[in-house]
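Below is one such protein, fold included:
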Amino acid sequence: MALIPFDDRDGVIWMDGRLVPWRDAKVHVLTHGLHYASAVFEGERVYGGQVFKLTEHTERLDYSARVMGFELPYSVAEIDRATEQVVRANGIVDGYVRPVAWRGSEMMGVSAQANTIRVAIAAFEWASYFDMDARMRGIKLETSAWRRPAPDSAPVHAKAAGLYMICTLSKHAAEAKGLHDALMLDYRGLVAEATGANIFLVIDGRIHTPTPDCFLDGITRRTVIDLARARGLEVVERHIRPEELAQASEIFLTGSAAEVTPVGQIDDLLFTPGQISRALIDDYTAAVQPPALAAAAAE
């Protein structure tokens, strides 16, 4: 099946305050964000025509921009409204939203104090991040050779474009071996996350997840922790050593794209998606539904 390039599609993209035809949403090759990774972004899901936890995502976009040393030229409320506008304009019922902000092209060099801050928001239909059959069997991962950087060496709590370079390298290496994703360790050699999702381990009926001290404390991560605790399950946030993976009866990933995805293999270790993973998949599926759809389903 031929891929449809993302720069050659129908629809509109919100860009710098207005909707523009999809194919016209372009930037110059000498844009600072392209050369120096001075860009931040979000990944958001649309369910039933509504963006799940939209304001939390927009607030994180605003936070990430400030960490990267620039201010967005629009308020959180304005970006929320623009997001809703572009979702409606493209007729997205179930899909994905990608807001991105970057330094423009007025200066080309490491310093970019005078550069305009550009903002764009795209929305498009979105299938499952992982193949559905593989997801329910449990996806396969390998431990990456790359590690998450220390907090004093990178803006680790911003959703900044440059931090994902090693994720692309790691995921490509895994896919070349027929796997789905990679497990990232941190600078200390502790378990951190997957390339675009947080990780949870079920050990003796308790859920364990790494302390997010050098990677994103994901919005989906926090949602699933709340759902688990609402079920009366204990959730422990702590440092996790790689050798502890062998103690887990279940492992799953969480993220806006991944939602709740069970893991079936990490390196030579095998896992079986179990009761807790399935319960949280069901709980998360219910939680993301807009109130009107949830009420209709309950009738």
